[in-house]
Amino acid sequence: MNKDKVFEYIDSKSELFATLSDKVWDAAELRFTEKVSAELISKALEDEGFTVERGIGKLETAFCGRFGSGKPVIAFLGEFDALPRLSQKAGIPSKEESVAGGNGHGCGHNLLGAGALAAAFGVKRYLEESGREGTVIYYGCPGEEGGSGKVFMVREGVFDGVDCALTWHPADHNEVTATSYLASYTVNYRFRGTSAHAAANPEAGRSALDALELMNIGVQFLREHIPSEARIHYAITDTGGSAPNIVQSTAEAVYQFRAPQLHQAAAIYPRLNKIAEGAALMTETEVDIRFIRASSNTLPNTVMEQMLYENMAALPYPTVPDSEKEFMAAISATLPPADSTNWGEVLPYVPSSASRPASTDVGDVSQVCPTAQLDGAVWPANTPMHSWQAVAVGKSETAHRGMIFAGKALAATAIDLFEQPEKLTAAKEEFLRRTAIAPYTCPIPADVMPDMPKQKQAASFGRCS
Known about the structure:
Helices cover about 40% and strands about 20% of the residues. By secondary structure, it is α/β, with parallel strands linked by helices. Helix 2 packs antiparallel against helix 4 and helix 4 runs parallel beside helix 13. The strands form three sheets. A seven-stranded mixed beta sheet has the order 1-2-4-3-5-13-6.
C-alpha cells in the first residue's frame, strides 16, 4: 500500500478530524480535568477499531488506543488540554472573550490531538492493507500545560516497549523540530508569619511578605551564578492581603526555572530552597516548599528528523482558502509584519545544538525512546503561542488544513520506519549514544502527584510559557 492511498484515507476522514478538533476547542479543559476531550478522542479510536485503555499512568484523563501486534511499536503523542483565562471567540479578528474569564486553546492542543489521531488512523489503514506485522499506538497525554502529564506517564512505565514516538505542535510555520527544548522545574514557595497591626504593635508581627521579597532579592543575586542559558521566572500569587496597616501573615510565589540540561536545572532547585529558607530565617517566618512538576530536555534524533523532513517536503503544503483570506489578513494586521510571503512552505532542516527557549514534557518521552516532532503551520506568521489570536484561528479551515498536513507527514514517516527497519535500527543506535552520556532519571519524585488547577489560575507553565 503506497502512501498516496494512506493520504486519501486521511482525507476521507478529514471532516471527522476537524469536527473532533472543534469539539475539543469548545470544551477547553485545563490540565488533568479533560474528561470531555479525552472521551471524544477515545470514542473515535474505538469507532475506528483501536483497543482503548483509559486511565493509564494513574492519570484519569490519560489513555491509549492500540492496533496491530508485534514489532515495531510506533507511537503518536496527542494532547488536548487548554490554557486558563484565554477565552476568545472563534473567527473574530479582535480580542473578544467567549466566556468571561474562561479557558482557551491558545497552544492549539485541540489541533494537536486530532492531527496525531489522523496519523494513527492512517498507519492503522496501512497495517490493515499491507498485512505487515507491527503495532501503532495513539497516546492521549493530558496536562501538558502546567502539569507535565507525559512525565508522570513515563514515571509509571507507560511507554515501556515503544520503539519510537512521533508528534507535532501547532505553529505559524512548517518545520522539523531540530533542536532541544529546555529542562524545566516548577516549585511553589509559601511563607507563613504572624499577623499584627502595623502601627499599634508591629513588634508582634512576622511578615511573610517581607520573607517573600527577601527571597526574590536573593534570587536576583543567584542569577549571576547559574549557567548563562538558564532562566529563572516567578509569579507572586498571594501577597497576603491589600491592607498596608496589617503585617501580612501569608505570601506565596511560584518559581519556574529552566536550563539546557536536566542536571543543570536540578542543581538550581536546592539553591532556591536555601534562599527561601534563609529568607524565612531572617524574618522569623516559616516556608513550605511544594514541588509541582518538572520535565527533561528533549533528545534530538537526526535519523528520524531527516525522515520527517523528507516527508514534509514531499507533501503539498497547506494554503489559506479564499473564504478565510480576509479573516487571516485581519489577524495578521494585529501581529508584527511577516518576513516572508511563503506561509506554509516547509523550512529547511538544519540541526542545531542550541536549545529552544521553551520547555515541553515531550522531552521525557524522548529520554526513553527515539522521538521526533514537527511544527505545523496553522496560524498566520508571527502568531505567538498562548495568545488570543491563536485561539481565534483554532476552528478555521486554515487550521484544519495545517492539522491534516501534519497528520500526513507523521503517518508517512511511520510507514517509512515500518518499511525500512534499518532506519529504525539507526534511530535506536543514535538514541543509545545520546542516553549513554546522561542516563535518564525521572525528574518528578515518586511521591509527587499531578497538580490540579485552581479555580483561578494566574499563569500557565506549558511549552512556551
